[in-house]
């Protein structure tokens, strides 16, 4: 992390009042806030290709049209709003996603999209003249809450997910991804890699709420991303034998819940030993009866580490512990890696350029969270800005960023876009 002074604005000075960006940020934020928010939990349930997602997409399109931008969806259902000629090339692109995890917070994703429109408003307010095309994006299905795979929109575009593999994705009700896209009014036949589109992007910058407390601890409103940890999702299917919870003697049981529970504990131990993280946050049980020993426990492991070797070590150790325990419990175990994202080191030249534009005193942070920026970084120069999150909580309704910090984020993004696109 570079040196910095506490509580300064993104450019090293107190955040100035910016009627353009700050004002429009506020009204956009309030418009978007009720969409997909659950009345009981206060969390967001904006899953890909559902009604709440459609409402978010309508909102995006309205914002684009209200600003006189050229609106389009690409072959993978990602939304684009263009200022300037979309075909000219060397475009500066900014944006994030509008979908959420189950009962997610308001900021993860939407902060980047709303800040992008607000940054454009700010630049127009400043009278900026653009020398490169600018686009604002909403990438589809970033969280993977419905179909299990994260960053589907950007992965398809970057050719990291094939059409064939995408067609195999199913939600919890057995609805396939192509049928869900079709039902939402998109053409699933068209999906696939989009190298021509990527070739027209000169730089992609994603602003995102920080999902940790580094900026809170350093006293900065805004930071720049250095790298994303390698991470993946593994599905563990523990198969035993359904039987009566009252009449089956303990010694006669083949209870997959026991094996699953031991595996959760092993995951915690192995992650702690390696300085990594490992989480079982989703589980499906069959037959799921309170008075029945389960026949199947399906648990999804999410594991991440600072480097590939450590992640491999942790996941191998968890699998070994699970197999050993399965043997003991008479359980059949199958483990499938459902997704994997290698380490991402954001391009140094663009990162240095952002730092220079923002005054050279902005902290540089790594993160364990995945982003569309990480996927795109394999194909285009990519950078990220983080906005302070005082508690570090994310993927929860308690996720938060203060209004002044959001304003600092908008101004920082406006400065960056001005520095890149208005030369
Ligand atoms: C996305 O937010 C992820 O890191 O899982
Ligand atoms: Mn997220
Ligand atoms: Mn996100």
Short note summarizing the structure:
The protein has 423 residues and is an alpha/beta fold.
Task: Kindly provide the name of the CATH class of the largest domain.
Answer: Alpha Beta
Number of strands: 15
SSE ordering? HHEEEHEHHHHEHEEEHEEEHEEHEHEH
Count of separate DSSP helical elements: 13
What low-confidence regions span 5 or more consecutive residues with pLDDT below 50? 1-18
Global Rg: 23 Å
Helix content: 25-40%
| CATH topology type of the largest domain | Aminopeptidase
Shape: globular
Hetero groups: glyoxylic acid, manganese (II) ion
Assess the beta-strand content as a share of residues: 15-25%
End-to-end Cα distance, whole Å, is 28 Å
CATH homology group of the largest domain: Zn peptidases
- Summarize the main sheet: 9 strands, mixed
The number of domains: 2
The CATH architecture term of the largest domain is: 3-Layer(aba) Sandwich
Oligomer: single chain
Structural class: alpha/beta
* Residue-averaged pLDDT: 95
